[in-house]
Amino acid sequence: MFDIGFVLAVGALGWGLSLASYRAFAAIHDWPMGRWQADRPLLPLVIGVLCVAAGVLVALGRISMGDGASGLMILAFGLGWAVFWTGFLHTGAQSALLLAPVAALILLVRAHG
Q1: Who wins on pLDDT, 80 or 34?
Q2: How far is CA 110 from its chain centroid?
Q3: What pTM did the predictor assign?
Q4: What is the mean pLDDT of residues 65-76?
Q5: Containing domain of residue 51, as a range?
Q6: Vertex 59 angle, CA 75 and 91, to 5°
Q7: Rounded to the nearest 10 degrees, how much is the dihedral formed by the CA atoms of 55, 56, 57, 63?
Q8: 3-state secondary structure at position 41
Q9: What is the 3-state secondary structure (H, E, C) of 56-104?
Q10: Which of 65, 73, 70, 89 is nearest to 15 (CA)?
Q11: Could you tell me if residue 32 is left (phi over 0), alpha (psi between -120 and 50 degrees) or otherwise beta?
């Protein structure tokens, strides 16, 4: 069975963390930055933190409802996804600016739908 909520939570958490941390890694490693990362650094940071929060809330919700393994896997896979997205894709990580909010928004719609 395919658990779309799991995938969206991992994506929101991973892309959000990548988005929130990209500017710091780009500055350290001299990677290029997109316009928002360079000119409006607070905006990607806030969007990233909100998306991370959405993924973490879903994970904590699953843990509190007795599905601890699934919740912990969301946290672990989300962190792994962020490392992959930022560390290996470098400038491709800028796409998290679009992907993270979409994943978080779909997660929110599913939770209230």
Answers
A1: 80
A2: 17
A3: 0.91
A4: 95
A5: 4-112
A6: 45
A7: 120
A8: coil
A9: HHHHHHHHHCCCHHHHHHHHHHHHHHHHHHHHCCHHHHHHHHHHHHHHH
A10: 89
A11: beta
Looking at residue 37, its pLDDT comes to 87
Q: Determine the residue type at 69.
A: A
Tokens of 110: 């599913």
Nearest to 13 by CA among 83, 67, 66: 83
Contacts 24+ apart (CB under 8 A), 29-33: 31/90, 31/91, 32/90, 32/91, 33/94
Residues 6+ apart with CB under 8 A from 26: 32, 33, 37
Give the per-residue pLDDT at 4.
93
How many folded domains does the chain comprise?
1
Instruction: Give the whole-angstrom CA distance, residue 112 versus residue 3.
Output: 17
pLDDT (average), residues 36-57: 94
